[in-house]
Amino acid sequence: MSKFVNAQEEIEYWKKKYDEIEKEFDEFQQNSEMIEKELETSLEQAEKLNRELKTRNNHLVLENETLKTKYELEHDDLISQIAELQEESKRCNEREENYVKYIRELEQKNDDLERSQRATYMSLAEFEVKLNSAIERNVLLESELDEKENLKAMVQRLKDETRDLKQEIQVRERELRPDNDKATVTRRCSSFRVSTATPPNDLTSKRTSIPNSETPGKPHTHIKSKRVTKSKYLSLNCLTGAPKS
């Protein structure tokens, strides 16, 4: 601190100092008021912003709670859907396995049916061959049966004719009774037996020599005309073993 010469100088000094301090104070006060106003404005803005942020925070909290609740519900739904889908997937896999097994069984059955079909076709072909052979044998048997029936009819006709001739021979023998013809009849019977001793199969071969106009059951017109010689009567008598009178 400087030393003053007198009191007046010291007063002026302190007065001047006071004025400077007062001026600084006024400036400080003004600055303080301005700062205070700015702070109040800032405070009001901060409070307003705080209120807005609180409101927004409350809104976000509420929205968060809502979303959280919604998320939990959706999460539960998703868990349930996932469980259902897993169960459905399991059932699908089981069905697929069953389908694969069923397809294999069908393929096996198809193969068995194809083999059975081939065997059936082979059996059918063999049956057709046997049937054709049987039909041919049947035709041959029918033909032989027809021939046999024709032969039976012819034999019956010949028997009837022989019986008629036998009766006529007996009648003629009763009328003739020649004693001197006995030896001749005996010789002719012997020769006739030798000439007629042919196998039975010749009857079938001789069947073709019979005229077509001669049907079974009709007598021969040349026999019914009774133009038979005495020697033939005697020969037939020997063959049939007719009693001699």
From TrEMBL:
UniProt feature, compositional bias: Polar residues: 193-215
Coiled-coil features, chain-numbered ranges: 4-175
Compositional bias annotation for Basic residues: 219-229
NUDE domain boundaries: 123-215
Region described as Disordered: 193-229
Pfam families the record matches: NUDE_C (PF04880)
Keyword set, alphabetical order: Coiled coil, Cytoplasm, Cytoskeleton, Microtubule
Protein localization: Cytoplasm, Cytoskeleton, Microtubule organizing center, Centrosome; Cytoplasm, Cytoskeleton, Spindle
Keyword presence, Cytoplasm: yes
Cellular component per GO, a single term: spindle
Example GO molecular function: microtubule binding
A GO BP entry: vesicle transport along microtubule
Protein family (similarity comment): Belongs to the nudE family.
Protein name according to UniProt: NUDE domain-containing protein
Organism the protein comes from: Parthenolecanium corni
Source organism phylogeny: Eukaryota, Metazoa, Ecdysozoa, Arthropoda, Hexapoda
